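Priority: medium. Attachment 1 of 2:
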């Protein structure tokens, strides 16, 4: 909201410097983003009066204008078509810095000769002074402009760009800011006196108003002014509109904009003769209706959009923009003026859906008081009568079905002390409320009953009143104290902690976290589960976000498919999130899950150290083993099945006697459904809910071994169906074995058909003594014998 200080002075006496005033407003919650000085760079620009106009001797389209500056008269060459003798105009002397009307750049005025005639200055347009983009003619000043006075003293102004908070709709007006300044400076605000001559016939005789649903329009007021003359608004009004960032259009339109900026209440002017049936109906749009708005665009209306209609058709989008059919034009003689209170959510929805934002809609969205509508209407009617020569009908039409009775708020005295830490007397608190326009009376020793003025729609509870005390007295007056009482103990969130640890481990293993939508389409869910009993949301935003996901797989595979198109390096993604498992006649079971996919080259670039190979099952298994090792969970991998994973290349993951997840290679048919071309794709999934109880085991201290270890390799040939993990577990049971690691699996020409070779690295160590070769040989011999008896294994030659 741009606030002109020249305009603001009409409602409050300003005694503070501009910068100090801006600081006080900012500290009270109305942040001043910037201060614009209008006329601050108008050096050598004076007010002059044109005393003579002569034709240029050497140019048909140029004139020689003699301008009286009080102390001197100067002659300049000009081509302005609107220049007349007797006019008062801005005159820039040589040395003034102006904006070039053609390039838009600032330049210093120099003496020049135009077609042989010296020009000792320049009469200025609004664009050259930086007031607007108008450059077609010279700016003509009012008759009361004092000749010879610097233009900066006459038109200069300071404009505050104030960023109001969403709950302070009252501060989207000059009067609203004047009330704030009054409270901060101890001054008394002034309001315009509203009175005008009225005709004999009441306005209700010429127009009727009907509101279909008070939930969308709580109040609708209208006045009628006849015999108006359309023309430009007076200079003082145009000046204020320009300073506020609005372009003057005509006296009627400018009045509605002026009052909106003055009071914060949007208004709209209809051409009365175009209202069919002389009836206004506030209703929701009907199926198939459309409206041409003032910007000339045809708007197709939807049934939940609020419109202003006459007896037959919509004539305006309520609170957003008027219709072209009832637009005020040069031949308009009678004006129906609207001032209403509309539902903010409805206006927001309509303006957003139509991509039609306006100054009016932005105010209605923030919630205006219904009591403001008749006040602003009478003010606008007054200006219409004064500035357009019209005659107002007697009274106004005021339909108010949404009236709500409100009572005073009780503010306990101890509440102020408790919230702010300030010991204030009831008199001090009442003084603050009085400065804001609130009425208050005692309700005990320190308690107050506070009546909130109509314009403060944001004050609803006692703590809102406490906030007002803090704002006006100053937040810097609140004392700084140490915390009282004990510091609250940390609340433990085991699942949150576990997710943080797993997230860090996944990232450390080289995977990238993704976050996908919890809502997906039915078609995507069916790609990963043909018999998925998912839950549909009642009001889906689109078909792509219609069902609650029952798996993280669709999002992961969709992300993998999207990234493979433009990324030839390794693709490693994981997601930690919730899935929603339906329950009979109940809300879904929200389960925390971890899922990940790996595909593409194992290394980003091939080198002489490692060949360029794609990641496989064991790369993903290694990530899981890292997680289990760091969480101190003993997990086992057993042959398993899954609907979207390849049989024979899928393992069920179990721990603590419970199935906690699955790992396997993605089936080519599923990959094709997601347009995934890279092969193989390894996917794993862990149920975090089942993983959580297995964590939390405390680490057991083990001293650093004092005696050296001995490492031996052992290659065993077993049947192809024997699980390497079972063999590894059997080896690890021997007392002198401190570590066993599988480092190679081979099947090919060098082993019999139907067999495979498992190569283990075994570490032997004792905490009590140095082992001898004989002890190690004996243990390894026993390992081979056990492998032979349990797994029919033989030593690989």
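Attachment 2 of 2:
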């Amino acid at each position: 909201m741009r606030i002109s200080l020249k305009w603001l002075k009409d409602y409050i006496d300003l005694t503070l410097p501009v910068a100090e005033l801006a600081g006080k407003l900012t500290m009270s919650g109305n942040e001043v983003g910037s201060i614009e000085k209008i006329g601050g760079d108008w050096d050598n620009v004076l007010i002059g009066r044109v005393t003579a106009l002569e034709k240029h001797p050497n140019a048909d389209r140029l004139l020689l204008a003699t301008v009286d500056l009080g102390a001197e008269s100067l002659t300049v060459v000009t081509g302005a078509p609107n220049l007349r003798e007797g006019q008062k105009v801005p005159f820039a002397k040589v040395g003034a810095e102006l904006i070039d009307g053609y390039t838009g750049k600032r330049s210093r005025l120099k003496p020049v000769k135009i077609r042989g005639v010296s020009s000792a200055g320049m009469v200025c347009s609004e664009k050259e002074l930086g007031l607007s983009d108008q450059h077609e003619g010279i700016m003509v000043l009012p008759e009361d402009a004092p000749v010879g006075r610097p233009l900066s003293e006459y038109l200069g102004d300071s404009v505050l760009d104030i960023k109001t908070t969403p709950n302070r709709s009252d501060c989207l007006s000059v009067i609203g800011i004047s009330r704030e300044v009054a409270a901060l400076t101890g001054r008394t605000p002034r309001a315009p006196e509203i009175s005008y001559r009225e005709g004999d016939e009441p306005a209700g005789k010429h127009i009727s108003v009907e509101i279909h649903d008070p939930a969308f329009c709580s109040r609708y007021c209208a006045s009628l002014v006849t015999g108006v003359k359309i023309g430009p608004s007076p200079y003082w009004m145009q000046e204020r509109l320009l300073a506020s960032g609005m372009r003057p259009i005509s006296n009627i339109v400018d009045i509605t904009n002026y009052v909106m900026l003055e009071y914060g209440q949007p208004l709209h002017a209809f051409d009365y003769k175009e209202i069919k049936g002389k009836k206004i109906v506030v209703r929701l749009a009907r199926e198939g209706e459309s409206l041409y708005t003032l910007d000339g665009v045809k708007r197709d209306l939807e049934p939940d959009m609020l419109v202003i209609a006459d007896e037959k058709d919509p004539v305006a989008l309520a609170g957003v923009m008027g219709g072209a059919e009832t637009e005020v034009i040069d031949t308009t003689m009678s004006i129906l003026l609207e001032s209403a209170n509309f539902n903010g959510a409805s206006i927001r929805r309509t303006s957003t859906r139509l991509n039609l934002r306006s100054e009016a809609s932005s105010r209605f969205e923030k919630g205006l008081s219904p009591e403001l509508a008749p006040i602003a209407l009478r003010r606008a009617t007054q200006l219409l009568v004064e500035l357009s020569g019209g005659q107002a009908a007697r009274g106004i039409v005021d339909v108010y079905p949404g009236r709500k009775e409100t009572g005073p708020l009780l503010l306990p005295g101890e509440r102020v002390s408790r919230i702010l830490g300030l010991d204030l007397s009831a008199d001090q608190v009442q003084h603050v409320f009085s400065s804001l326009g609130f009425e208050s009376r005692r309700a005990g020793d320190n308690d107050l009953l506070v009546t909130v003025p109509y314009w403060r729609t944001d004050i609803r509870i006692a703590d809102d009143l406490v906030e007002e005390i803090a704002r006006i007295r100053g937040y810097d007056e609140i004392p700084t104290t140490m915390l009282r009482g004990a510091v609250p103990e940390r609340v433990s969130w085991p699942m949150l902690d576990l997710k943080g640890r797993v997230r860090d481990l996944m990232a450390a293993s080289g995977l990238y976290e993704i976050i996908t939508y919890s809502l997906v389409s039915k078609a995507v869910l069916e790609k990963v589960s043909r018999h998925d009993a998912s839950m549909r949301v009642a009001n889906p935003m689109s078909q792509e976000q219609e069902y609650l996901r029952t798996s993280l797989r669709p999002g992961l595979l969709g992300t993998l498919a999207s990234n493979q198109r433009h990324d030839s390096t390794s693709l490693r993604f994981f997601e930690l999130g919730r899935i929603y498992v339906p329950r009979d006649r109940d809300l879904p079971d929200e389960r925390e899950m971890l899922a990940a996919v790996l595909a593409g080259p194992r290394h980003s670039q091939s080198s002489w150290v490692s060949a360029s190979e794609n990641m496989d099952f064991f790369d993903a298994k290694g990530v899981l083993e890292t997680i289990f090792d760091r969480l101190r969970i003993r997990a086992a991998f057993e042959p398993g099945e899954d609907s979207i994973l390849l049989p024979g290349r899928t393992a069920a993951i179990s721990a603590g006697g419970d199935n906690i997840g699955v790992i396997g290679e993605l089936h080519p048919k599923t990959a094709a459904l997601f347009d995934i071309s890279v092969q193989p794709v390894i996917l794993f999934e862990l149920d975090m809910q089942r993983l959580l109880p297995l964590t939390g085991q405390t680490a057991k201290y083990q001293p650093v071994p004092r005696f050296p270890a001995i490492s031996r390799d052992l290659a065993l040939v077993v049947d192809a169906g024997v699980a390497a993990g079972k063999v590894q577990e059997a080896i690890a049971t021997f007392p002198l074995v401190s570590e066993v690691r599988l480092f190679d699996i081979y099947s090919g020409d060098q082993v019999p058909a139907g067999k495979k070779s498992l190569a283990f690295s075994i570490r032997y160590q004792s905490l009590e003594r140095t082992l001898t070769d004989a002890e190690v040989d004996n243990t390894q011999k026993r390992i081979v014998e056990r492998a032979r008896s349990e797994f029919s294994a033989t030593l690989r030659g």
